[in-house]
Write the structure tokens for this entry.
Amino acid sequence: MQPYFLPYIGYFQLISEVDTFVVYDNIKYTKKGWINRNRLLLNGMDSVFSLPLASASDFLDIRDRAVSSDFDRAKLLNQFKGAYAKAPEFRNVFPWLSDLVNHGENNLFEYLFQAILGVRSLLELQTEVVRSSTIEVDPALSGKDRVLATCRALGATVYVNPIGGLDLYDRVEFRNHRLDLRFLRSGPVQYSQFGGDFVPSLSIVDVLMFNPIPEVQKHVRQSYEAL
């Protein structure tokens, strides 16, 4: 998977389901994706938060991009505080979130990677999380071919993809490469958000602000199915 900034719970359900989770660092950064932004709950509606990036060529890999020198970590934390100060788990989660956001790394990939590892640790997931550049795969490969090459390099027998991959990958073709292809479908993880209408698929921070950590751990490990 690409690295994302504090992604939704389904990202960590996928990590929970596998033995080894590969995060792409040597692929091109895409402007319109969710690599350096996500959504939180603000006044009952979804609102975007983001990491500002230093200006650079559109052809650079994620690992060659940098967070802007003007990135105001305190401002981002105030954005979270303004959204969740009255949430039931705010006092438990905010110190952890502050440490994560205040990490001094300015390389974009490394900043995102340490955040993913930080959530993994909080949720007590044992999955190995590795950078794609540490695996001997031709970086010129893309899409399905790169997935297959990565699986071969790791000696994998099963590949798990989010449910959106149903339109991208064919089980028979993967079987021809001695791989069992499975898809993860997140179940409904719904909870009270200040008593308003539930807004789904927000950052994992939203889940943590409204649910005790043991409950979040349970949802990460159980509230999905692998097809």
Summary: The mean pLDDT is 97. The helical segments are 9-17, 73-84, 90-101, 108-122, 143-154, 171-176, 204-210, 213-222.
